[in-house]
Write the structure tokens for this entry.
Amino acid sequence: MITLEFSEQDLADIEEACDAPTLPEKLTRKLMCLRMHKQKVRDRVIASVMNISPYTVTIYLKEFDNLGISGTLEDRAYIQSLKGTIIAAPHSSQKPPQSIQPRSLFLLALK
């Protein structure tokens, strides 16, 4: 079990984020997990109440421990999905890399 120490600023940030009306459900779940952990609720109980696995609770706690509140509230699944859809086009005066042939670019555009 992970034990986190919350500063007054951390607690204020968590409370402020919980009050945001447009916060996605996944991020609300993370914040609720942190609040319950602060109240000394065991990880397995948090998992049971929130209907998530104990492993997910551990991930949420480690994420907060490593990245703080801003990292916890970052939607990395969305960012990761964008990485797969963006293809950087070379400057018009540059040749495309050897691995990208004009035919493969055409096929990518069709997908």
